[in-house]
Give the backbone structure.
Amino acid sequence: MTTSPTSCPICRAACSMLPPVDLNKSCEESRGMFLPPSGTLVHYALCGECGYCFAPEMCAWPLEKFEALIYNADYVKVDPDYVSLRPKGSAHMLRGMFPNLPSTVRHLDYGGGSGIMSDLLREAGWTSRSYDPFVHKDTQPAQLGKFDFITAFEVFEHVPDARQLIGTLGSLLEDGGMLLFSTLLSDGQVHPGQRPGWWYASPRNGHISLFSRKALAVLAVEYGYNFGSFNENLHIMCKAAPAWAGHLL
């Protein structure tokens, strides 16, 4: 894989290449589960200006290659929580954050996998639907309509083109709507010249885009959004705080 310096897709500043990791480096290593080395090396690039860290060659893979090497039948081994534990937990969190969300608020869970979270939210009275590019291959985002509230949990780190993602989500968001998303911030976790040992920097999980707070803020400003974080993992983008979210913002 490439070891040549490249420019940052977020802020266009110069990036440096980091020592490589094996393609089979997964998030489950933090729990003591290690896959045998694949023999394929993955280099991440780190922006010296905004702190965005990404895997250039993997970001250029076609969808079919991700399906064959990453999101295949063995994916559950490196992310067992995605099957039900994480969507159930996310639904519980959202009900707690918005206990009185009006049914007139149209909600989209972008990158929602099998749709468990939306199913649970609808049972709680939400007007919710799920969309995932890997699941709903015959549906284009433009066919979905507009939504007042979009969630994208554990999506940003998987996308090869963050600008395209923000553009797509923005095209689905009603004026005055809000985006709530999760991705762990890389601040203090990735360093120039050092192999990315951070557990979240795991190519086998498809974690090819690692965001610093500044990188997310740069993206937000460019697309006309305000950006904020509830913690190191949960963030919002919106142009103005919706009335139904005023108790949190």
